[in-house]
Amino acid sequence: TRNHSSGFHRHYEKLTGQHFQKEMDAGATTCFGCVVRCRRKVKKADRGISDSTGGPEFETLGMLGSNLDITDAGAVALANQKCAELGLDTITTGGLIAWLMECREKGLITAEQLDGIDLRFGDAESVLEMIDAMGRRIGIGRVLGEGFDAAAKVLGPETAALAVHTKQQGYPVHMPQVKPSQAVIYATSPIGPDHMSSEHDWLLEAGGDDCFGLGISGSGDRYGTGMAKIRMTVMSQYYYSLLDSLCLCMFCWGPGNLFKYNEVAELVNAATGNDWTFHELMLVGQRRIHLMRRVNAARGFGRGEDRLAPRMFQPLVGGPSEGRRVDPAEFEKMLDSYYSMIGCDPATGHPTESKLAELGLEWTMDLTSW
Prior knowledge:
The chain has 370 residues and is mostly helical. The chain has 2 domains: 12-170, Aldehyde Ferredoxin Oxidoreductase Protein, subunit A, domain 2; 180-366, Aldehyde Ferredoxin Oxidoreductase Protein, subunit A, domain 3. It contains 16 helices and 4 strands. The strands form 2 sheets. The chain has a two-stranded antiparallel sheet. Helix 8 crosses helix 11. The longest helix has 21 residues, at 278-298. It is globular, with a radius of gyration of 21 Å. The mean pLDDT is 94.
């Protein structure tokens, strides 16, 4: 809520699935042959909203809804439709707009700097204007299209502290302040903060086969930051990396969903005629993570870029999570543990030579640019 400053919205019920179903003739459809039916359908002809692009999903409801202090279901659906038509990611788009709204609220920028678009929290019309400018790369929209850092250079360095991003990518709605595993993943993920790059903290609490099948031992609560939590983060990151490599959906194949881990190997072997074990397939996921880290290292990325936005270290305001924040010292300890567990140098964040050799990636050490 309001540029990630809170984890609660006073009118959250207006963004629920039940409300969409009542107000916008919402329903669900599916990818071919899938029983999960997670694709949303919405329709409201009098506001120009059709089901041609699919309705807003969870992240979009947050990033184009509550994070902008907007609870008009139709406005969120229309903003989602505009983003889809213009090829904009709703997460980073919502993050950029929320950032500008807070900068306006604090008097750091003017409407003139935004080409007359008077962005304010709760103002849906100005959001639609800005989405159009961004998608068509008009005026300030062209600047925003280059990312947070480029925009901060134009709007003023004092605005940078309010920008919620890592490696130029905006944050999803899952809050690192209450999910320590996501603090590590948002900071270290080679592709930028991504809530679908690992499983979340519930997994370690659940235990059982969902944990043991990935080699996750130990126990811990959702706020824990010890080695058990780091192991859960690492092993589930390798597994999700494998699923990405196989183009398999996390909502079917993720922990606790429709299929078991051994069935991944059965599927791959049936399709390829090979006889791979699940352990061998997990190495595929691990190899992908380290290959991406080597690509990033060749481009100048290291531990210095594996950071969190300053907002994450500030206490959340209001609601059940009030006062929760990422502790800076504890976060650095978690980073040290993460690097050590995956086989990276804690000083640089780069994969070690021995780890690359273990994975058959030693050839990447000769790459100085990519």
